[in-house]
Amino acid sequence: MEKLVTSEVKLGIIAGGQLGKMLVLAASNWNINSYVLDKDDHCPAASSCTFFIKGDQLNYDDVYGFGQMVDVLTLELENVNTDALKKLKQEGKKIYPDPDRIEIIQDKGLQKQFYEKIKVPSSLFSLFNSKQEIILAVKSGKQLIPFVQKLRKGGYDGRGVSIIRSKDDLNNLLDGASVVEHLVDIEKEISAIVARNERGEVKCHPTVEMEFNPNANLVEKLICPSTLPDKIENEAEEIAIKIISELDLYGLLAVEMFVDKENKIWVNEIAPRPHNSGHHTIESAITSQFEQLLRAIFNLPLGSTKLKMPAVMINLLGEPGCKGKVRYEGLTECMAVEGVKIHLYGKKITKPFRKMGHVTVLAPTIDEAKNKADFVKQKMRVVSW
């Protein structure tokens, strides 16, 4: 803590998208020197960080060289060069999360095997090396339809996922090493964000409900507190805490889960970093997910995760058919509504369904927050010139 107070500590953040930007802004409250590595010198975090370094998070030399510049290293996405991180770790660099844990999370097959090992509920699965193997398994009766196919590596925000509901959908199979999962009959999708530090403290933010855009398979709206029974919320929190503890991960972990029609919870995926389902915490919680990550990696006491006020968050996605320089419609009308907090990520170019910002709506009751959020959703659009 004394070193942190001197304001000489150098925090390295691999990738400078919106998550990196919001982490930089949280770090600035403590006057931490933030270094950001990204291949796009116009990325959202570039204008906010103390030092910007242009480089590719998948390139060994770029990641290794960047790590040598800083005291503590973290990331805003898990698709990074872990060989470089392992070398830095061997040399004594503080890296959160640990590169061995990142490798488990990078591979959805290893994720599923980990859930099986620690006995947390996750849907039945099989591993395949190619789409042809999946087709042969279906023809032989070893793989039943319906199912969900996920590429083991590289997928995010709905990419790398194909839902197969009939034999006709087999044409939509993705080629590559895959996890094939039983299709859960989903009632709700939920998320819990949990933090852990080296002091042994673990704290979980309240569970949120997520609503997805059916076209882009992206989170479109989240609700906190959730409308779930206390029993399910408590179970979700216990699962999140068990995963971060068994994984022996220090930092932040987002645990996405399904609740089926019988109110049973199934773990979907995890992300070892700040997450879209925690953006509302900037205004609605005593400690935001970004501050909590900083507390965890600097081994400071974890902050309170209590809600200040109910909240609904809406992702601002690029409108279908719009590509080019970004323009926001409805901004003035929405800002006139009490409790509306708008975050624009600073991306210069909009594309269909690209995450361009988010809006958190605070209100004394969740119903009031929902009504205001519906108004914002109708009025605010991300279009191009």
Can you lay out the helices and strands and say which pair or pack?
Elements: H1 2-5, E1 10-14, H2 18-28, E2 33-38, E3 51-54, H3 60-67, E4 72-75, H4 82-90, E5 94-95, H5 99-106, H6 108-118, E6 125-128, H7 131-140, E7 147-151, E8 161-164, E9 178-182, E10 186-196, E11 202-204, E12 208-213, E13 218-224, H8 230-246, E14 251-260, E15 265-271, H9 281-284, H10 289-297, E16 311-317, E17 324-329, H11 331-335, E18 340-344, E19 349-350, E20 355-362, H12 366-379, E21 381-384
What does this structure look like?
It is built from twelve helices and 21 strands. It is of the alpha+beta class and 385 residues long. The chain folds into three domains: 2-95, Rossmann fold, CATH 3.40.50; 124-182, ATP-grasp fold, A domain (Dna Ligase, domain 1, 2-Layer Sandwich); 186-384, ATP-grasp fold, B domain (D-amino Acid Aminotransferase, Chain A, domain 1, 2-Layer Sandwich). Strands 10, 11, 12, 13, 14, 15, 16, 18 and 20 form a nine-stranded antiparallel β-sheet that branches. A five-stranded parallel β-sheet has the order 3-2-1-4-5, with helices on both faces. Strands 6-9-7-8 form a four-stranded antiparallel β-sheet. Strand 12 (208-213) and strand 13 form a beta hairpin. Helix 4 packs antiparallel against helix 5. The radius of gyration is 21 Å and the shape is globular. The chain starts with a helix and ends with a strand.
